[in-house]
Design goal:
Blueprint (H helix, E strand, L loop, with lengths): L14 E5 L5 E4 L3 E8 L2 E6 L5 E3 L4 E5 L2 E10 L5 E9 L11 E4 L3 E5 H6 L7 E2 L4 E2 L20
Antiparallel strand pairs: 1-2, 1-10, 3-4, 4-9, 5-7, 6-7, 7-8, 8-9, 11-12
C-alpha cells in the first residue's frame, strides 16, 4: 500500500474546518458558500472547494427540495468516515452554483481557529505514519549526572 497524500488548508485564513474524527484539514472558512443547509436531517455547510475528500459511492440522481441533482457521497481521505456529498450536476439554472461544491455535515467537522492550529501539532512526535500506529513515546531525559570527583594524589 502506498503513502497517504494529505493536503493542508492555508494557515493564513481566519479559520478552517477539520474532520472531527482524525483532525485532517477539510476546508477553509474562506471557501464557505452557505450555512444553514440540512443534509439528511442534520445541519450542513456548503463549501466551494475542499481537500482530503474521496468519493465513496457511485454517482446517483436525487431530487432534493431545490431541484434534481447528480451527487456522489464523499468521505474523509484519512479516517474514511462518510462526511457528506459533492454536487456533480444541477438541473435548474439557478442552482448551477452548487456544481462541484461539497455539502458537509456540520456535526462531523471541527472549526479550528488559525491560532489554535499553530499551537496544536498535526501528529504527535511519536506517531509512525509509515505504519499508521503509535510507537512508544520517547523516554524523557534523566537527571544530569554529577561531575566526576577528583582523587587525591599520593
Amino acid at each position: 500500500m502506498g503513502r497517504l497524500f494529505v493536503e493542508f488548508v492555508d494557515d493564513a485564513v481566519l479559520a478552517k474546518y477539520a474532520c472531527c474524527h482524525c483532525g485532517c484539514d477539510i476546508a477553509s472558512e474562506a471557501s464557505l458558500l452557505w450555512e444553514g443547509y440540512m443534509a439528511q436531517c442534520t445541519p450542513a455547510l456548503l463549501f466551494r472547494c475542499a481537500v482530503n475528500l474521496s468519493p465513496c459511492s457511485p454517482k446517483r440522481e436525487e431530487t432534493l427540495s431545490t431541484g434534481r441533482y447528480i451527487l456522489v457521497d464523499v468521505r474523509c481521505h484519512v479516517c474514511c468516515i462518510r462526511i457528506g456529498w459533492r454536487y456533480l450536476h444541477a438541473e435548474r439554472e439557478e442552482q448551477k452554483y452548487k456544481e462541484n461544491a461539497v455539502l458537509l455535515q456540520q456535526g462531523l467537522l471541527e472549526r479550528v481557529n488559525s491560532m489554535q492550529a499553530l499551537r496544536r501539532p498535526a501528529l504527535p512526535r511519536h506517531f509512525t505514519a509509515a505504519h499508521g500506529q503509535q510507537a512508544a513515546p520517547p523516554s524523557p531525559p534523566g537527571p544530569p549526572s554529577p561531575p566526576p570527583q577528583r582523587q587525591p594524589l599520593g
